[in-house]
């Protein structure tokens, strides 16, 4: 496509001021936040041809802080970014369980398969092995059940199996609220293997057995990272975009926004379902995501987030 190629060349040329001492952040934001991942890849290719320098290295040298993290995140595909974030969460002495839980428990079959493949390409290691080495107990069992190929989640079916729905709802109740101590293995098995539409019906049916809904039962039965993981799963099964809207709202509630969380969600979902997340945000918090970002962030980082957000609902 000659016309598109010329446009990409022009844009890569616009980024050449990165080589100067004075950095034009606005141009970087205008170009890189308003293009698709594929277009950014083409711009990077042309930039290297013109400038004889890798664009990612140039951006690292030119930017800093939260803006740097956001722009560098955009230079990766969604799967590469998720894989990168997972690796970073398991680096060093402490594990960033919050990131692990958010990514592993909120991604669907296809997304997890892509992340695993890309993780292997980028780091020459299996995601399962790194997760197993960095976590323990039932928390590790749950995460591994979600990422392992052997426990693929069922694909949605047009046939509603009411008998199976009832069986799973009763099994969840009998493994938790009904007994003393929780049979976590049964919970893991059902929540990691059944299709999402099936589980939605299971949680509805569950209420006819238990005095508590599934989320209340989780809070009563398990604690810590395992509790957070199960709650994330249930919230994503019920409404994945609302889960992300809640995470963004929570991250921007405090005086200083949790920029790492905001960046991760906006960058990882901007080409997936950010428009739907915006809709859920407005519906539940009676104000737009755009307005919330404006109030809780500042400077060039704010400009980049607002550009990715795309509009004030």
Automatic annotation (TrEMBL):
Q: Which domain of life is it from?
A: Eukaryota
Query: Does Calcium appear among the keywords?
Result: yes
For this UniProt entry, the molecular function terms from Gene Ontology, in alphabetical order, are: calcium ion binding; calcium-dependent phospholipid binding; phosphatidylserine binding
The Gene Ontology CC terms held by the record are: cytoplasm; nucleus; plasma membrane; vesicle membrane
Task: State the UniProt keywords alphabetically.
Answer: Annexin, Calcium, Calcium/phospholipid-binding, Repeat
Q: Which Pfam families match?
A: Annexin
- Has keyword Hydrolase? no
Supply the SUPFAM superfamilies for this chain. Answer: Annexin
- GO biological process terms held by the UniProt record: negative regulation of coagulation
Q: What is known of its domains?
A: A pair of annexin repeats may form one binding site for calcium and phospholipid.
The UniProt family comment states: Belongs to the annexin family.
Q: What is this protein called?
A: Annexin
Organism annotation: Oreochromis niloticus (Nile tilapia)
- Gene assigned in the entry: ANXA2
């Amino acid at each position: 496509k000659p016309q598109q190629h010329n446009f990409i060349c022009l844009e890569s040329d616009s980024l050449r001021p990165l080589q100067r001492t004075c950095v034009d952040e606005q141009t970087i934001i205008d170009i890189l936040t308003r293009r698709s991942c594929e277009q950014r890849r083409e711009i990077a290719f042309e930039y290297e041809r013109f400038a004889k320098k890798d664009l990612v290295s140039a951006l690292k040298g030119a930017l800093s802080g939260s803006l740097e993290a956001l722009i560098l995140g955009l230079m990766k595909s969604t799967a590469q970014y998720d894989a990168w974030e997972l690796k970073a969460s398991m680096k060093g002495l402490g594990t960033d369980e919050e990131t692990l839980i958010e990514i592993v428990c909120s991604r669907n079959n296809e997304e997890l398969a892509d992340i695993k493949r890309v993780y292997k390409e980028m780091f020459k290691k299996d995601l399962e092995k790194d997760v197993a080495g960095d976590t323990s107990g039932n928390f590790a069992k749950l995460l591994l059940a979600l990422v392992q190929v052997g426990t693929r989640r069922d694909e949605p079916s047009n046939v509603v199996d009411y008998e199976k729905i009832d069986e799973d709802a009763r099994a969840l109740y009998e493994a938790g609220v009904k007994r003393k101590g929780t049979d976590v293995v049964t919970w893991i098995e059902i929540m990691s293997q059944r299709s999402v539409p099936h589980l939605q019906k299971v949680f509805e049916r569950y209420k006819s057995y238990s005095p508590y809904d599934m989320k209340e039962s989780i809070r009563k039965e398990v604690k810590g990272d395992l509790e957070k993981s199960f709650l994330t799963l249930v919230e994503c099964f019920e409404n994945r975009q609302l889960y992300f809207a809640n995470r963004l709202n929570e991250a921007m509630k405090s005086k200083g926004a949790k920029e790492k969380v905001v960046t991760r969600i906006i960058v990882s979902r901007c080409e997936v379902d950010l428009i739907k997340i915006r809709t859920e945000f407005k519906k539940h918090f009676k104000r737009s995501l755009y307005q919330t970002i404006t109030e809780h962030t500042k400077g060039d980082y704010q400009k980049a987030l607002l550009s990715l957000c795309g509009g004030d609902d």
